[in-house]
Amino acid sequence: MGDRGHITKQSSVCILVSIGRLKQKLVHGIENWKYDDRLKFLGLTRLDKRSIRSDLVETFKILNGFYNINKGLFFDLDDGGHRGHEKKLFKRRFRLDTRKFVFSNRVVDNWNSLSAQCVNSCTINTFKKHVSV
Q: Model-level pTM?
């Protein structure tokens, strides 16, 4: 009884993907094309890549003080002398899957793989231009 109306991330992703596919099939002539080909023709990107990009933009905003929140609540900077940019994030280890896939943990690998030029951008629009997922 308490589970009514409960939407998991996976079910909401499935709903979004199915809506996107229905919209794409409304364009005449591409109904029978493969999903990736339809996206390319329409100039769209896959849902998983869009979510990674939006996670990176939100991380940039948090780390650079665009939001009035304590960045320490979300991220720990990696103090090790590693290659790459100066704003590398430390990835915490968790035993339970519920914590492994939280925003502050799932974005770390993608953030750490960005170039120094991208991470050290001054504005959000400059950052968005440099991000390629």
A: 0.72
